[in-house]
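Researcher: Next entry: HNH endonuclease (Flavobacterium solisilvae).
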Amino acid sequence: MKKKSYYDLLNEEIINGFKITYQDKLSTSEWQNKREQIISRDNCKCIKCGEPKITLYGMGLREMNQSERDERWERISQIPNSPIKFSKDKIVYPRVTVQLHVHHKYYILNKLPWEYQDIALITLCDLCHKEVHNTEKILVFKDDSLTETIDLEACNNCNGSGYLSHYKYYMNGICFNCSGTGYFELK
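Model: Predicted structure:
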Protein backbone atom coordinates (compact mmCIF):
# COMPACT_ATOMS: atom_id res chain seq x y z
CA MET A 1 0.00 0.00 0.00
CA LYS A 2 1.37 3.39 -1.00
CA LYS A 3 1.83 5.90 1.82
CA LYS A 4 0.27 9.32 1.45
CA SER A 5 2.56 12.25 0.92
CA TYR A 6 2.44 15.32 3.10
CA TYR A 7 1.07 17.21 0.10
CA ASP A 8 -1.87 14.74 -0.05
CA LEU A 9 -2.51 15.29 3.67
CA LEU A 10 -2.54 19.06 3.17
CA ASN A 11 -5.07 18.67 0.35
CA GLU A 12 -7.27 16.49 2.56
CA GLU A 13 -6.98 19.06 5.35
CA ILE A 14 -8.24 21.77 3.01
CA ILE A 15 -11.03 19.65 1.50
CA ASN A 16 -12.23 17.89 4.66
CA GLY A 17 -11.26 20.50 7.24
CA PHE A 18 -9.42 18.13 9.59
CA LYS A 19 -6.27 19.07 11.50
CA ILE A 20 -3.07 17.21 10.63
CA THR A 21 -1.60 15.58 13.74
CA TYR A 22 2.00 14.60 14.43
CA GLN A 23 0.86 11.01 14.06
CA ASP A 24 -0.42 11.82 10.55
CA LYS A 25 2.96 13.34 9.68
CA LEU A 26 4.74 10.18 10.84
CA SER A 27 2.60 8.12 8.49
CA THR A 28 3.62 10.09 5.38
CA SER A 29 5.88 8.77 2.67
CA GLU A 30 8.36 11.58 3.42
CA TRP A 31 8.84 10.44 7.02
CA GLN A 32 8.89 6.75 6.11
CA ASN A 33 11.66 7.40 3.57
CA LYS A 34 13.70 9.43 6.08
CA ARG A 35 13.10 6.81 8.77
CA GLU A 36 14.33 3.98 6.54
CA GLN A 37 17.38 6.04 5.57
CA ILE A 38 18.34 6.62 9.24
CA ILE A 39 17.74 3.00 10.28
CA SER A 40 19.80 1.83 7.32
CA ARG A 41 22.59 4.25 8.21
CA ASP A 42 22.63 2.80 11.74
CA ASN A 43 22.91 -0.78 10.37
CA CYS A 44 19.33 -1.65 11.38
CA LYS A 45 20.29 -1.69 15.07
CA CYS A 46 19.61 0.37 18.15
CA ILE A 47 22.67 2.57 18.63
CA LYS A 48 22.30 2.35 22.41
CA CYS A 49 21.93 -1.39 23.09
CA GLY A 50 22.66 -2.97 19.70
CA GLU A 51 19.24 -4.65 19.31
CA PRO A 52 18.16 -6.49 17.26
CA LYS A 53 20.80 -9.12 17.61
CA ILE A 54 18.62 -11.72 15.93
CA THR A 55 16.46 -11.37 12.85
CA LEU A 56 13.92 -13.84 11.58
CA TYR A 57 11.86 -13.31 8.44
CA GLY A 58 13.15 -9.74 8.31
CA MET A 59 11.88 -8.94 11.81
CA GLY A 60 14.18 -7.91 14.65
CA LEU A 61 13.94 -10.02 17.78
CA ARG A 62 15.33 -9.78 21.32
CA GLU A 63 15.74 -12.48 23.90
CA MET A 64 13.40 -12.15 26.86
CA ASN A 65 14.98 -11.12 30.14
CA GLN A 66 14.25 -13.08 33.33
CA SER A 67 11.36 -10.86 34.49
CA GLU A 68 9.68 -11.14 31.07
CA ARG A 69 10.09 -14.93 31.24
CA ASP A 70 8.60 -15.07 34.73
CA GLU A 71 5.71 -12.82 33.74
CA ARG A 72 5.00 -14.89 30.62
CA TRP A 73 5.15 -18.09 32.68
CA GLU A 74 2.66 -16.64 35.18
CA ARG A 75 0.23 -15.74 32.38
CA ILE A 76 0.61 -19.12 30.65
CA SER A 77 0.25 -21.11 33.87
CA GLN A 78 -3.01 -19.33 34.74
CA ILE A 79 -4.77 -20.15 31.46
CA PRO A 80 -7.25 -22.98 32.12
CA ASN A 81 -6.85 -25.96 29.78
CA SER A 82 -3.78 -24.36 28.25
CA PRO A 83 -2.36 -26.41 25.36
CA ILE A 84 1.09 -25.64 26.79
CA LYS A 85 1.87 -28.48 29.18
CA PHE A 86 5.46 -28.23 30.38
CA SER A 87 7.23 -27.17 33.51
CA LYS A 88 8.78 -23.76 34.08
CA ASP A 89 12.34 -25.08 33.77
CA LYS A 90 11.63 -26.75 30.40
CA ILE A 91 9.66 -24.00 28.68
CA VAL A 92 11.19 -22.64 25.48
CA TYR A 93 10.70 -18.92 25.68
CA PRO A 94 9.83 -17.16 22.47
CA ARG A 95 11.74 -14.11 21.42
CA VAL A 96 10.13 -10.68 21.57
CA THR A 97 9.79 -8.44 18.52
CA VAL A 98 12.07 -5.39 18.53
CA GLN A 99 10.57 -2.23 17.13
CA LEU A 100 13.14 0.20 15.82
CA HIS A 101 12.28 3.87 16.18
CA VAL A 102 13.99 6.96 14.82
CA HIS A 103 14.53 9.36 17.70
CA HIS A 104 14.86 13.13 17.34
CA LYS A 105 17.72 14.27 19.61
CA TYR A 106 15.98 17.65 19.73
CA TYR A 107 12.99 19.35 18.18
CA ILE A 108 12.64 22.60 16.32
CA LEU A 109 9.32 24.41 16.54
CA ASN A 110 7.22 24.06 13.36
CA LYS A 111 9.77 21.78 11.64
CA LEU A 112 8.41 18.68 9.95
CA PRO A 113 9.82 15.36 11.25
CA TRP A 114 11.70 14.57 8.01
CA GLU A 115 13.23 18.04 7.62
CA TYR A 116 15.93 17.48 10.26
CA GLN A 117 19.56 16.92 9.40
CA ASP A 118 20.62 13.28 9.67
CA ILE A 119 22.86 14.05 12.67
CA ALA A 120 19.76 15.06 14.67
CA LEU A 121 18.23 11.58 14.23
CA ILE A 122 19.27 8.23 15.70
CA THR A 123 17.91 4.68 15.68
CA LEU A 124 16.70 3.35 19.03
CA CYS A 125 14.78 0.20 19.91
CA ASP A 126 11.39 0.70 21.55
CA LEU A 127 12.78 0.06 25.06
CA CYS A 128 15.75 2.43 24.72
CA HIS A 129 13.52 5.08 23.13
CA LYS A 130 11.20 4.93 26.12
CA GLU A 131 14.18 5.05 28.51
CA VAL A 132 15.67 8.10 26.76
CA HIS A 133 12.38 9.99 27.06
CA ASN A 134 12.03 8.94 30.70
CA THR A 135 15.56 9.95 31.72
CA GLU A 136 16.58 12.82 29.42
CA LYS A 137 15.02 16.16 28.63
CA ILE A 138 14.58 16.53 24.88
CA LEU A 139 15.12 20.19 24.03
CA VAL A 140 12.75 22.11 21.79
CA PHE A 141 14.37 25.00 19.95
CA LYS A 142 12.67 28.07 18.60
CA ASP A 143 14.44 27.90 15.21
CA ASP A 144 17.28 26.32 13.22
CA SER A 145 19.92 28.39 15.01
CA LEU A 146 19.49 26.04 18.02
CA THR A 147 20.19 28.90 20.40
CA GLU A 148 16.86 29.59 22.14
CA THR A 149 14.83 26.80 23.75
CA ILE A 150 11.10 26.70 24.41
CA ASP A 151 9.68 25.09 27.53
CA LEU A 152 6.89 22.64 26.62
CA GLU A 153 4.73 20.56 28.95
CA ALA A 154 5.50 16.86 28.43
CA CYS A 155 2.56 14.51 27.97
CA ASN A 156 1.85 12.78 31.28
CA ASN A 157 0.52 9.70 29.50
CA CYS A 158 3.72 8.79 27.58
CA ASN A 159 6.20 10.94 29.57
CA GLY A 160 7.21 12.82 26.44
CA SER A 161 8.08 9.77 24.31
CA GLY A 162 4.99 10.01 22.10
CA TYR A 163 4.85 6.21 22.26
CA LEU A 164 3.12 3.60 24.44
CA SER A 165 4.80 0.21 24.05
CA HIS A 166 1.88 -1.70 25.56
CA TYR A 167 -0.30 -0.37 22.70
CA LYS A 168 2.16 -1.14 19.88
CA TYR A 169 -0.48 -3.35 18.25
CA TYR A 170 -2.72 -0.30 17.75
CA MET A 171 -1.53 2.61 15.58
CA ASN A 172 2.06 1.41 16.20
CA GLY A 173 1.80 2.54 19.82
CA ILE A 174 1.53 6.27 19.07
CA CYS A 175 0.28 7.96 22.25
CA PHE A 176 -3.40 8.82 21.83
CA ASN A 177 -3.19 11.60 24.42
CA CYS A 178 -0.63 13.80 22.61
CA SER A 179 -0.95 12.24 19.11
CA GLY A 180 2.71 11.26 19.20
CA THR A 181 4.17 14.73 19.78
CA GLY A 182 5.18 13.98 23.37
CA TYR A 183 4.15 17.51 24.38
CA PHE A 184 0.96 19.43 25.00
CA GLU A 185 1.42 23.13 24.75
CA LEU A 186 3.72 26.04 25.41
CA LYS A 187 4.11 26.77 29.11
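Model: Note for the record: Residues 29-41 form the longest helix (13 residues).
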